[in-house]
Known about the structure:
7 helices, mainly alpha
Amino acid sequence: GYLQAVSWKNVHIKDGFWGARLQVNREVTLDYQYERMEKTGRIDNFRRASAKKKGKFTGSFFNDSDVYKWLEAASYSLGTHPDKKLGHKVDRLIEEISGAQENDGYLNTYFILEKEKRFTNLVHPKFVAAILTGIFVIVENLITHTKGVHITNTAMRTSDPGTISAEASPVF
């Protein structure tokens, strides 16, 4: 027979080497990373793109993907260990991300704030789309965080067919 993938929902790591690291991630790392994203302007870029805050883009053009990877990690954590405080951060962040999305579905704060550069380099936007697709797979299993589905559905709807899929993504 062939090997088959096991869903993350069916894997329960409670102790040992990885159990300890996942606990540190839940109890320390996710909060620390969120604070760093706030301090370095990564989340503010979404606020600027939605016109909630004035100013120019801060940091490197790939800063959005750091926010999405945090959202992915937080969603995995919530899927195995529900946490109201973390869930609230995820909800707020999803609201910031959704607010930055343009009417045509486009979502990349660097290019939203630097409009003349939009569509000049599609490599990173495709990577980000893959991350968002991964988050969609997680979020569809988290009933309390279904707002995130809108983000990924829009990314999938507004992209070229076949460019965003869990199967074709380098992230998976």
